[in-house]
Model the fold of this input.
Amino acid sequence: MGRPQIKIFRRELAPQFIAAATKKPQKLLPLLLAATQHVRDAILLPSAQNLDDIPIEHKDTGAQRDADAKTFTIITDKQCEAEMARLLSASFPQALLISEEKYGDSATAEKQRVLDEALATDRMVILTDPLDATRDFRTGGDGYGTLVAVLQNGEITAAVAHRSTDYADPSGLGHTLTFEKGDGVRRDGRLISPLSGRVFPDDTLKLRGYAGAEFIAPMRRKGAADKTGFPDLAGKFDSLSDLWTCSKLLDDLLTGTHHFALVPPPPDLFDYPAALGLINAAGGTARFLDGTPATFAEIVRRQNFDGDDKAAKALLNTLVFAVSENVFKAVQKTVCDAAGLTIPARPSPREIPKPRIRDLHK
Done:
């Protein structure tokens, strides 16, 4: 069977795309969406017609990227990033723009400097991954898209998660998730009902979630004597490795088809800040398995800058997205019990020091 053909649909910026993603257009979101659509229409959709002509290039596969399923890059990554950077720099000249490919090509000291600045600055910070799910894109899948997160003083204040294509949709195009501080989460322009107002299963056997490859084998072990298995979640998960894309994961959580996601450590700096903003704004929960609330600063703190790969990949550094606090606690208890881990007491806010990269894992 041949690869599905993608028909290129042209949509004007207004009202179909921008108005579909934000009810009350302000300056920020329309500009983010305009850049997202331009990258999609000018680069991603045309490139998807000629995948065999796109060479695979070397990808940063240092310890910091081991958890990322995308172990290669293609010229389309860099084309999208260059165009997104051009548009966002013109729209927000005072902002600190951090993009995945340029960051990934930097030396460790430069990565530390950039993230130190992102945590300390009063300027707007924009994190962007213009081609999320490169492997999915390169193999003819339909889950690839664009992620953008905006931070102000360390707080995620806006996000865009756009899935470029969806073969199941009559239009051939995917969905757009957005949020901006002061507004709710919107899917293609319509407010989604808050997760906090919905009822979810109390029984872990009725929960459905996503899990990284590190969890799949033990989840499938069902022997009572097997202390590494997760019998209460067995058969109720889908593989993140098969999903490839953060935009679909978020859509499934926000629309209620899935209840949690276990993201193996260390968490990706470019996939998950937008996810944090969207999940929290929708009333869900984003925490590490040790119970610490997930923030951009905490994601930075748990990276592998000091070379301690074992510490960075510790099970308690697993990032958990859940549709409710009760679902998080159920998943946390199940996984920690199965792994023989004690759930640590959560420190009070005044006991949590301000994250600094040089203090990582001390």
Summary: Residues 52 and 86 are 27 Å apart (CA to CA). Residues 13-191 form a domain with the Fructose-1,6-Bisphosphatase; Chain A, domain 1 fold (CATH 3.30.540.10). The first helix runs from residue 13 to 21.
